[in-house]
Amino acid sequence: MHAQTHERPGxxxxxxxxxxxxxxxxxxRASGYAIYALSFDYGQRHRRELEAAAAVARAVDAVEHRxxxxxxxxxxxxxxxxxxxxxxxxxxxxxxxxxxPARNHIFLAVxxxxxxxxxxxAVYIGVSQVDYSGYPDCRxxxxxxxxxxxxLASKQFVETGRSIPVVAPLLYLSKxxxxxxxxxxxxxxxxxxxCYRGEAVPCGVCDSCRLRAAAFAAVGVPDPLLDPRR
Length: 230
Hints:
By secondary structure, the chain is of the alpha/beta class. The protein is built from seven helices and five strands.
């Protein structure tokens, strides 16, 4: 296990470069943690979100930013990894095609292992079950079940009884609430990326863009990513 070389405790932050994970990264830093940013190149259609994640990692003075490659496109089942078209209108009922099978389960497993290796004291994830797309792995009951499994699989927990908790501070917060929190923390949302397409500007019509636009409208502030002065 690597010893930490700084006075602050460490936290692994799952960082996609989107609104929620960026807010959580700033919150973890404000809570006194040194940030170990963890992103994934998982076969998503574009790398634009990884560029955003790198920018956010720099903004929060991350100790390091690791990008782990796991090709979830190899199993398919999601329009985000090229299995079908990304919808531009709300899909009626059920879990949308943009859900990536097992994504958060796999990401959290890697994050827990990473946390144990670097001696981090927590894992932060930006999921919410209030204002989201209906993904099953964004719910509190999943996180509770995952935590139990992570503890049982942890050398640290088995030997010492000390858990590495998964912290989901936005779980019961709307996306507008997350933005309000982030603005209070000084988040530069112009660094973030939410669009499921990796073009020069957000498409404005995918599910993620619609949720983002509605949240900024609810807060009553413009989205800095769409500010032509930037």
